[in-house]
Write a structure and sequence with these properties.
Layout: H1 5-33, H2 50-72, H3 90-123, H4 126-139, H5 144-164, H6 167-190
Helix pairs in contact: 1-3, 2-5, 2-6, 3-4, 3-6, 4-5, 5-6
Amino acid sequence: MGLDGEALQATETAILFAMHLGAIALLVWYLRKRGLGAGLRPLGRDAWHILWELPLIFIAVPLLTQVVSHVAGLEPIENGGLGSNVGMEPASLLKVFVVGAVLAPLLKELIFRHMVMGYFDTIMPAFGSVLLSSAIFAVLHLEPVQVLHAFFGGIAFALVARRHRSLWASIIAHVCNNLLVGLIVLAGLSA
């Protein structure tokens, strides 16, 4: 395309934005057409529990990831992951905070916690459904340490979705997780 620098970042961000919005719209349309709903029930009177569940997730998921990756001898890939192609340009910040922290979690929760886990619930016990849907979710993250983090995060998101009987709980947890990761990456870039 002959683009470089900020123009390339802006184009990439616009494409990712359009792809995520299109996928979400198509998925919601498909679920409604099939009469399956999107799992977006109100959180109910116990919604305040998310206030203690989020910090627990933010502590438990990285801790478990560190312990298991240390025991397994896994090291993060140098210059890999989210920070490898992120800068402080406006397009890059939009990519991290709009696409990565809002649209991607919404799409992934619809797919993995609503559709995949929902399907597994029909053929296996809840324990297996949570673990298998989290494993599939994790494998898509590719980098070994990120796979572990995504696996433990997937379990946490599945558990809050089940506890609240609403996909909103897992969406909130996933969005907050990705916002926190984005802030950590940006803090590392500005240091």
